[in-house]
Amino acid sequence: MSQLKVLPRVYQEMIQAYYSLKSEVEFDIEIQHIYENPIFCNPVISNNGRALLYSEFINSGIVQIKDICYEFIPGFLSKDSIVELVQEKHPELKSRIIAEAYAKILNAIPKLWKKDLNQINPVNVDRIPSLTVGTKMIEFSKVTTKIFYKLLLQKISESPTSEHFWTQHYPSMCFKSLYLVVNQCHLPPECVSLNYRVVTNTIFTLSKLCRMGKHDNSTCLSCRAAPEDMFHLWTNCPSLVNFKSYVIDILHNVLLKDTLNPILDYTQLILLGYLKNTKEINTYFVNFLLSVARISIYKSRQIKVFDDKDIDIKRLFIFTMKKYVLYAFTYYITNNRLPLFEKYYVNKNPLMRYDQKSFQLLI
Ligand SMILES: [Zn+2]
User: According to the lineage, what is the superkingdom (predicted)?
Assistant: First the structure.
C-alpha cells in the first residue's frame, strides 16, 4: 500500500476503498475475463510468487492472455508462433530464449485457468460478469455506485459513542429510526444540524465544559438551581415549565391524539424526536415541530449564555414554525410540488388549514 503514495490522491482513495470492500465483492470469473488478464506484472500469474516481466514480449504486442491464445478455438498458440511473433520485433533474440520464456509464462498461469482456456471456445462467451456483493448476486451492469458506497459505509463506519449514553437512558432505543428521523429531508438544515449534535451527544453543555476543564461552573444560568446537562437544558430546567406544557399540550391533545400509545415520554420526544411509524399520525410534521421546539430552546439558551438575556421561547417557537412552513409552502408551490408540501405539513395534521392556495397554522 505504501507504493500508492505516488498516485494522485483520488486514485489512492479509490484503491483503498476497493481494498476495504474486496472481501465483500466476488467477481464471477468467465473465460473472457481470464482472456483479458495482463500476463506481466500480474500477481496471479507468477513463478514462486514473482510476477513475470518480459519487455520483448510486450514490445511485440503480447500483453494479455488472449494474445497467446487462438482466436476461434480453445487453446494456446504454439511455441513456434510465439517465437515468430517476438522475432518480428526482436530478430536478435534467440528462438531458444523466447521458447523458454513462453514455457515459463504457460507454467505460471493458474491451473484452473489453463483448464478453461484449453476447453472453452472464446467466441461465444458472455463478457459481462456477475458480482456477488455481500450476499446478493447482481449483474455487473446493475451494480450502482450507491451499492458500493453503502457497502463501504458499512465497512468503515463506526457506531457513535453516544449510543452508549442513550442506551443507558432508553435501553430499547432503535438507533436506525433515530438516525432516519434526525436527517429527514424536509427539516430545515439548521434543525438537522442541531438534531445531529443532540443525538451524537456533542452539545457543549456547561456540565460537559466543566468535565473538559474549559469552564468552572456547571450551574444552569437560567434557573441557577441545578447543573446544566443534556436533560436539564432541554426539559428539566424550571425556566422551561411554560413552554414544556405548551408543547406537551399540542403533542398529546392534538397531534398524537387517538393513537394506541398516546402518552409518550416528553423528554425523549424533545431530545430525540418521535421515532415510531404510526399510520394515523403525520410523523413528518410531528418531528418538524419537535425539531423547531428543540432549536427554539437551544437558541434561547445560547442567548442566555452569551448575552445574559431572557427571551420568550414560545414566541420564538411560533415565529420559527410559521417562518419555516411559509418558506416550504412558497418553495413547493413555486416548483409545482404541492403534494410534497401536503405530505410533510398538511396530511393528518389538525393544526393545519389548507386549500392549495394558502394555509393557516393553528398554533
Ligand atoms: Zn436551569
Answer: Eukaryota
